[in-house]
From TrEMBL:
It comes from Methylobacterium komagatae. Pfam families: MptA_B_family. The keyword Iron does not apply. Coiled coil: none annotated. This is Glycosyltransferase 87 family protein. Keywords: Membrane, Transmembrane, Transmembrane helix. The chain crosses the membrane at residues 44-65, 72-95, 177-202, 237-260, 266-286. The keyword Nucleus does not apply.
Length: 335
C-alpha cells in the first residue's frame, strides 16, 4: 500500500476519493430539503467537514503543481470532478436561494413577459405561481430581478424546456463544463500540464456553488473560458464579444479585461464587447428604467456600502481589525 501511494498518480486518486467521501459526508449532515444546516452543533460540524475537504483539495493542488503526472491522470481528475458534481446535483439548494429566481425569470419569459417589468408578487403574474418555485423566491414582494440580459437569455432558454431547479442546475453545469474544456485548451496552448485543471475542477467553492446551488456565475465562467481561448488564438473581436456577454451575466468578468488587450489591439475587443452589451439589452428595453432591475437597492441591502456584505471585512470587523461598520451581526449568502 505504501508503495502504491508513493506513486503521484495513486496519491492523486486517493485524494480524489477522499474529497468525494468528505463531500458526501457534508451532505449527510445537512437536513434533506432544509434551507439551513440545522442547529449550531450541526452547523459547526458541517463547517468542520467542509474545511477538511478544503484541506484535501489544497493537498491535491500541491500535488499537481509539484509532481510529474502521467497523461492518464487527467481522466482521474475529470472522473472525480464528475462524481463530485453528481453527488451534489440532486440535493436542494441551501447556501443560496437565487436559483428559484432564475427558474421564475425563465417561466416569466416563457409566458412572453419581460422579466424586468414586474416583481414576482405582482397580480399580473399570479397565473404563473406554482408551489415548487414561487414560495422560495427571495425578495419576491418588493424587488424586480437583478440579473442582466445575458443571464436572462439563459433563463429564458432553460424555461422553454424545464421549469425545475434540477433543469436549471444542469444548464449551469453545462456552462461550467464548457468553461473547463476551454481552460484545458488554454493550458495545452500555453504548454502547461493539463492536470492543472484540477485547480478549478475540484475547487469546493465551485462544487457547492454550482452543483448544489446552481449559481449563475457558472454561465460567466463558461463564457469567460471561451473568451480566454479566443484571445489566445488572437481572435480579438470574438474574445471581446464573449467578455461582453460574460459581463452581462455578472459584472465581475470585466476585471480580466486587461488580459484581452495586452499585446493586441484595444479597439477591436472593446467595440465588440460594447456592441454585444447593447444588442443583449435590446429585447428588454421596453421595461424602461426598470431594465436595471434591483441593482440600485441591492448594494445597500446586502451591506456593501458599510462593509458588512464582504465576508473578509466582516470577519476582520469581529476581530476589531476593520471599521466599526463591518462588525454587525448581519449575514446573508452572496449572489
Amino acid at each position: 500500500m505504501i508503495r502504491l501511494l508513493a506513486s503521484p498518480a495513486h496519491r492523486l486518486a486517493a485524494l480524489g476519493l477522499l474529497l468525494l467521501a468528505v463531500t458526501v459526508g457534508a451532505l449527510a449532515i445537512q437536513v434533506p430539503g432544509a434551507d439551513t444546516v440545522g442547529a449550531a452543533p450541526q452547523s459547526n460540524a458541517f463547517i468542520g467537514v467542509v474545511a477538511v475537504g478544503l484541506a484535501v483539495y489544497l493537498l491535491a493542488v500541491r500535488l499537481v503543481l509539484r509532481e510529474r503526472l502521467p497523461r492518464a491522470a487527467l481522466w482521474t481528475i475529470l472522473g472525480i470532478a464528475v462524481l463530485l458534481r453528481a453527488a451534489l446535483l440532486p440535493a436542494l439548494p441551501f447556501l443560496s436561494t437565487d436559483i428559484y429566481r432564475y427558474v421564475w425569470d425563465g417561466q416569466v419569459q416563457a409566458a412572453g413577459i419581460n422579466p424586468y417589468r414586474y416583481i414576482p408578487a405582482d397580480p399580473a403574474l399570479e397565473r404563473l405561481r406554482d408551489p415548487a418555485v414561487y414560495p422560495l423566491i427571495n425578495r419576491k414582494d418588493y424587488a424586480r430581478t437583478i440579473y442582466p440580459p445575458a443571464a436572462q437569455l439563459v433563463f429564458a432558454a432553460v424555461g422553454q424546456v424545464s421549469h425545475s431547479v434540477t433543469g436549471m442546475k444542469l444548464a449551469m453545469l453545462g456552462f461550467e463544463a464548457l468553461g473547463m474544456l476551454a481552460m484545458l485548451a488554454v493550458l495545452r496552448g500555453a504548454g502547461l500540464p493539463s492536470a492543472r485543471i484540477l485547480i478549478y475542477a475540484w475547487n469546493p467553492l465551485a462544487l457547492w456553488s454550482f452543483a448544489r446551488d446552481g449559481h449563475v456565475d457558472a454561465v460567466a465562467i463558461g463564457l469567460l473560458g471561451i473568451a480566454l481561448l479566443a484571445r489566445t488564438r488572437r481572435r480579438y473581436g470574438l474574445a471581446g464579444a464573449l467578455l461582453g456577454a460574460a459581463t452581462l451575466v455578472k459584472v465581475l468578468p470585466v476585471a480580466v479585461a486587461p488580459a484581452f488587450v495586452r499585446g493586441g489591439r484595444l479597439w477591436r475587443p472593446m467595440l465588440a464587447g460594447v456592441a454585444v452589451i447593447a444588442v443583449l439589452y435590446l429585447p428588454y428595453l421596453a421595461a424602461g428604467p426598470n431594465v436595471f432591475g434591483f441593482a440600485g437597492g441591492y448594494g445597500a441591502e446586502e451591506g456593501y456600502d458599510t462593509g458588512v456584505g464582504y465576508w473578509l471585512l466582516a470577519g476582520l470587523g469581529h476581530l476589531g481589525l476593520s471599521p466599526r461598520a463591518c462588525c454587525g451581526p448581519t449575514w446573508s449568502a452572496p449572489d
